């Protein structure tokens, strides 16, 4: 779906609460079809602010240098093609259900009491 919107990437980094689970990063890797790296840092908002400050005061030449110096990867999750197909089939079923429900909600809306 992202590719149809013109977005392309060959890897992604996941942080925050969901990244602490071994299931969520693997599901993202499987669904997106790219390796997912989980960041070691748990407070990535504060880390991002520190990197920005480092760039601002000249500690780092640019954000890329700051990121390289201050971030550490904890684990990488590789995509599983069988699971990508598994999730894709379920996503297609979800889209079909959404279309059916859209018709249902439109019918319900149009048949409601207008008083």
UniProtKB/TrEMBL annotation:
InterPro entries listed in its UniProt record: ATPase_NBD, FGGY_C, FGGY_Carb_Kinase
Domain (Carbohydrate kinase FGGY C-terminal) ranges: 3-55
SUPFAM superfamilies given in the database record: Actin-like ATPase domain
Pfam families registered for this protein in UniProt: FGGY_C
Keyword Transferase listed: yes
Keywords linked to the UniProt accession: Kinase, Transferase
GO molecular function annotations of the record: kinase activity
A biological process from GO: carbohydrate metabolic process
Alphabetized PANTHER family for the sequence: SUGAR KINASE, XYLULOSE KINASE
Family note: Belongs to the FGGY kinase family.
Entry protein name: FGGY family of carbohydrate kinases, C-terminal domain
Species of origin: Shimia gijangensis
């Amino acid at each position: 779906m992202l590719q149809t919107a013109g977005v392309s990437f060959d890897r992604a980094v996941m942080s925050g609460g969901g990244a602490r689970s071994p299931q969520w990063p693997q599901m993202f890797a499987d669904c997106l079809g790219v390796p997912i790296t989980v960041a070691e840092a748990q407070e990535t908002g504060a880390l991002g602010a520190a990197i920005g400050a480092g760039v601002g005061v000249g500690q780092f030449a640019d954000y890329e240098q700051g990121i390289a110096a201050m971030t550490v990867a904890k684990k990488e999750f590789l995509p599983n093609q069988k699971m990508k197909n598994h999730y894709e089939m379920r996503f297609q079923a979800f889209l079909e259900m959404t279309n059916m429900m859209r018709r249902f909600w439109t019918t319900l809306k149009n048949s409601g009491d207008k008083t």
